[in-house]
Amino acid sequence: MYEFDLTRPTTIADAVAALNEEDAQALGGGQTLIPTMKQRLAMPSKLVSLGAIPEMKGVCMSDAGEVCIGGATPHAVVSAEATAFPGLADLAGQIGDPAVRNRGTIGGSLANNDPSACYPAAALAAGATIVTNSREIAADDFFEGMFETSLEEGEIITEVRFPVPEVSHYEKFLQPASRFALVGVMVAKFADGVRVAVTGASENGVFRWKEAEQALSANFSADAVSDLALSGDEMISDLHGSGEYRAHLVNVMTGRAVKAAS
């Protein structure tokens, strides 16, 4: 590690001001940023920790019936307290190991947008709203590609608001070394239809499987997706599995998620 300055603001306004300084970078739980800094792949001279801002922590219900989670809330707290959205609570409990779940944050995960992270699938499947210090962003507009989001320089995720589906489930095919999803599928059934989000599979990051959504909206059963198929052409291909293998897993994980949700 190298020398850098660390500041711990206690308000969102102070955090935004600190991030406007030259070469400053936000620090959530640090589960991605700190290893990256150790390898010198990122070398900010100032870190702005978001862990001391009370208004960015905790889980609550809004008047509109949404599960609202502060951007600096650790995965373990989401798992324990987001019980009004069981599919989300279960997803949070599958992230990493206990050390990661107690340090990593939902805001940090969404801002990083790792192509195999779990929370992006939850946000996209639920049609969540990502709230920042300056605006509200629909999940459908937030994710722009592998490690890319619509966040602007110095913008902080302060809260994430999740509409609660009638039923939901996240099915994860675990990559045992990293505990990321080799393929993860979140299925969420609402009164007006079904949303299906896939993580870990595509070279373009998390995505909605529209064909499966249409089939499941008409018939919410595993049989509805059994004959559907995705191309492996734009799927991740590495030592853990080919693009064709991941495409096949998307179908399998979707069917399992529907069965579990049902």
How would you characterize the overall build of this protein?
This protein is an alpha+beta fold and 262 residues long. The chain has two domains: 5-162, Uridine Diphospho-n-acetylenolpyruvylglucosamine Reductase, domain 3 (2-Layer Sandwich), CATH 3.30.465; 167-261, Enolase-like, domain 1 (2-Layer Sandwich). It is 31% helix and 24% strand. The protein is built from ten helices and 14 strands. It has helices spanning 12-19, 33-38, 75-81, 86-93, 98-103, 106-112, 119-126, 139-142, 210-218, 243-261, and strands at 5-7, 24-27, 46-49, 59-61, 67-70, 129-132, 136-138, 143-145, 148-149, 157-162, 167-174, 181-190, 193-199, 207-208. Strands 4-5-10-6-7 form a five-stranded antiparallel sheet. Strands 11-12-13-14 form a four-stranded antiparallel sheet, sandwiched between helices. It has a three-stranded parallel sheet with strand order 1-3-2, with helices on one face. A hairpin with a 6-residue loop joins strand 11 and strand 12 (181-190). The model has no long low-confidence stretch (mean pLDDT 94).
